[in-house]
């Protein structure tokens, strides 16, 4: 990390602090300060690890530096102007969708490959759904926002295929393309409508989802070590029970559940910061429920994309984020948590 | 100056649509860049290897029969220093003369030894000209570059570029001087084969292997 990079990072974080202060968003300021604190702590941790020449040192370093950038960019996007937030999240959705389509093998004759070259038109159509979604979320046309992708874009794809006069491989292509825009445009696109609930709600969902990703890794490690030291018995076999050993050999039900409970507890911290919704303020009990849902859904989001990647034989979805793989590797859990959290809050408080 | 601004805008657009390249602005001294050719986007992508300030010191070798007229020719002239090569020339030495001239004047070259846009993702046999060129300028590095993903974005016959992640892979440079010992005709063939093999390996390494 060069000095210039550090300077840019500092300016970005400083600017978003100032902007939030000017807007009087004290709650966001608090959350941001805590995030910067946690990141600073990790920056110290990796330096200590490198000094002690521990094996995990360089990995933690890369990950932490990338986290700094992600937090800085995200904060800047959320603190400048509503339009910027929308465009930023829309771009994130586009980048993830592009990464998804790019990692799928493509071939002239759609035989053994996943996509065929004739699918380019339909893929372009699914990209064009993104600006539409941004616009609908921006003008807060909820009813059209919620059906645009699953109804209109979904039906547009077979129509495009018919106009291309295709038979070969169309079933596979339609399925794969639809999966892409349902995941990354529709589900992830709920982020956009969340901004309308209040940026804090989006922060709540994203922070808890990302926290679950980090927590589950350490909880998994800790429980595995504990289980290994136990005598054989019912408890040990429960602790070592895998969710899907073929997809991810290390993920256990126990670690998933413990992480979900921890996230439910962590979500309580956000309750006093939440905005006033039309039907009142968020209660602690409801927040715990949402937190637990985030814990469980994030787990399945993580596994869903591991499953897809295993099927096509790639390790990371891309290489745009050093130490993290691709964008999909970073937002896979959000694809599952964001729409559900949105609707849980929407039904209860709007 | 106008062209530099045009390129700057182009680069921003490309970064937004096709991803931010990991290799950029690496070619700071005179060199020859050879790459696999699947699409019109290739040239624009390859110019990312040169810093903006040097964009006017690069010449792109293009097919004279294709780029001398029409829309492609106009776009080419606006964006690049095009060096039109007569693909149907009877006398190869005469056809290659402008390339020699450009190298003598200190320009860098971007060229596609396949001579045409082939089938998506398949590398065709390299034409002999590149070997000859490298042997005659033994100290100018020849960089083989493998472009991934461009054939999905805008394959031959496509009209609208569709966003896909495009990656450039800069491979180890080859120098004509290392092949001088083989003699002119053997050295030429060996150098050309090395470049081709280098790009072919990079292409094959990046094919995802679907589990059966």
UniProtKB/TrEMBL annotation, chain A:
Enzyme class: transferase
EC number: 2.7.7.41
Keyword terms of this UniProt record: Membrane, Nucleotidyltransferase, Transferase, Transmembrane, Transmembrane helix
Pathway: Phospholipid metabolism; CDP-diacylglycerol biosynthesis; CDP-diacylglycerol from sn-glycerol 3-phosphate: step 3/3
GO cellular component, one term: plasma membrane
Annotated GO MF terms: phosphatidate cytidylyltransferase activity
Biological processes annotated in GO: CDP-diacylglycerol biosynthetic process; peptidoglycan-based cell wall biogenesis
Keyword Nucleotidyltransferase applies: yes
Coiled-coil regions listed in the entry: none
Origin superkingdom: Bacteria
Membrane topology per record: Multi-pass membrane protein
Localization terms from the record: Membrane
Pfam families: CTP_transf_1
Keyword rRNA-binding assigned: no
Family: Belongs to the CDS family.
Name used for this protein in its record: Phosphatidate cytidylyltransferase
Organism the protein comes from: Desulfovibrio subterraneus
UniProtKB/TrEMBL annotation, chain B:
CDD domains linked to this entry: LPLAT_AGPAT-like (cd07989)
Keywords: Acyltransferase, Transferase
Keyword Acyltransferase listed: yes
Domain Phospholipid/glycerol acyltransferase: 31-150
Pathway(s) it belongs to: Lipid metabolism
Cited Pfam families: Acyltransferase
GO molecular function ontology, one term from the record: 1-acylglycerol-3-phosphate O-acyltransferase activity
Name of the molecule in the record: Phospholipid/glycerol acyltransferase domain-containing protein
Annotated source species: Desulfovibrio subterraneus
